[in-house]
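pasting for ref. prot 1 ->
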Amino acid sequence: MPMSHEKHHFPNKWIKTKDQQEHSYFQYHEPEEPKEHKEGTLTKQAILLLAVHGLFTAANALSGTFVNVYLWKVSNDLSLIGWFSLSHQVMNIITFWLAGKWVKEHNKMNSLRLGVGLSAIFYLIVLLLQKQAVDFVLVLGAVQGMAAGFFWLAFNVVYFEITGPHDRDKFNGYAGLLGSGAGMFAPWISGIVITQMTASNGYKIIFSISLVVFVIGVIVSFFLKKREPKGTYQWFTAFQRLKEKKNPWRKTFLALMAQGMREGVFAFIIGLLVYIATKNEMKLGNYSLIVSGVALVSYMLMGKYLKPWHRNRAMFIGTLFMIVVILPFFWDVSYTTLLIFGIGTSLFLPLFTIPMTSTVFDIIGRDDESAQQRVEYVVLREAGLNAGRILGTLIFIVIITWSKKPIVLNIFLLCIGSSPLLAWYFMRNLMPKAPEKAK
């Protein structure tokens, strides 16, 4: 298919031979700003992007888990939470696809800011609706999905532009570190606030704090320099790559779907199960403090020591243990077994997510043409993730409507929680092999 992008000339050290392109997908990235890509270091722009990511994550961590709890306390209906999540996921994928034109051809930083701003508006709406929020879960989910779509599309494109294969694992490690730090303290603080005050006032305060943090995130984003748009947005080009038999995106898309199936369900069900088991927001906050503390250490270590050629083995080990920690639920779904699951997942999830994320973005940058279509491929990546999330959430709604027996839910969680094994299977041959020095 003819390309409408401008032709760029790249230094020879970034250009790969045809043989290299067929057998390796991890060495290339578009050298848009070569000075920003120094071995073993993160640039100022990368650090600023991490700061915006940290604020966005912290604001969501303050209230995100408790939004689901708040809706469940009013409705006592797990399927309603499923519909809320499904609305989020559907609008998220639509926003990614439509906003791709804006991000590619105009100012991607405005997309990032709009995402943060819409997140603030989401919590403002919840504050205004209060208990009536349960009557508008589809609208609320759609607003939150739009916010996430605008933010993560711009974030992922900028992330690709300011990192390369040599520092992508490091960036992802720090991003996980910030996310874990936010996950540690934000829900814990929220739990204290809610339990120390009347429930309705406590929820109002944490939702208000989230709104303020989002506003701060918008302010910090103005320190990120404007990145010039390049090329014309191709609405369907990236999706057409899925028809090509030897294109790595065929397996990558299936792997992303498998990853998304677990994410879509576990993102909301675990926090709810902790609250249902304890009936106490403070214990939910303590749970987040403990498991996120473990994740913080794990991400810090993985970001520091994980090398590109370790990804295959690390991803397989992480996947296996993420499945094993679900098994205690068949004994009892209690605070103890949920804590075992949370700690185990926090330990081993970085072994899965860092290789998965880094490898997918390395595939985006595998050659000149692909790198120039980074926006389209980021949209394709999110389409795969959200297709999996939607599928997993739809299955959850069907299962929970059909039967609320614990054994049925446990079998479902084990099946859906095993989907990362499929992700590893599809990605295993696309990850970097060890260089001779490493061997």
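and prot 2 ->
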Amino acid sequence: MSFLVLILSWGSMGLETAAAVGLSDFCFEPDGYVMNTTQARTGLSPEILQYYLTCSQDVFNPFQQRLTVCQRALSNIHSQLYGLEREAIPHFPAAEKNIVSIQSTLNITESNFHHLVALVNCRGLHKDYVDGLKGLCYDGMEGLLFLLLFSFLSALSFTTAVCSLPRAWKRFQNRDSDYDDMEDDDPFTPQ
């Protein structure tokens, strides 16, 4: 049983070493790995991935053109609705209720659009990505290295104990025979 535990302790240390090497390889260039893996699994364009991974002023927002077109369309609808309200309500007072309803729906749509713009922005996701990488590559690596060190020390001490125990046991047995040769008239002999 002790040899099985010995093999398991050295085997677990080998697994921890492999995990530390793999994690250090990942932490050397995480952006490339994340970009290749995400692109292979999801099929997203490299421009979108680059935008969210780097989140700098130099990288063009791939959604900016579409967002600008939508913002212009919303502004255009607002101005046309305002013009319709100004021209049509004096001639058709019953249409005021419908125009107010359309304005309310347009305001909700514009609010949802602003939430969408905030969600599409790379800052929040990039901050979470960087925080996750820091936690994994610094704290996780440090914890894994400490685990590896203590696993090594415990495996080494257990190996020493398993290898030295048979010799020590033989010596203890030999010493017991030395104590059997006691003299009866010795004043220091325990009674």
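Residues 122-179 form the longest helix (58 residues).
Helices lie at 2-28, 30-42, 46-54, 64-91, 96-120, 122-179.
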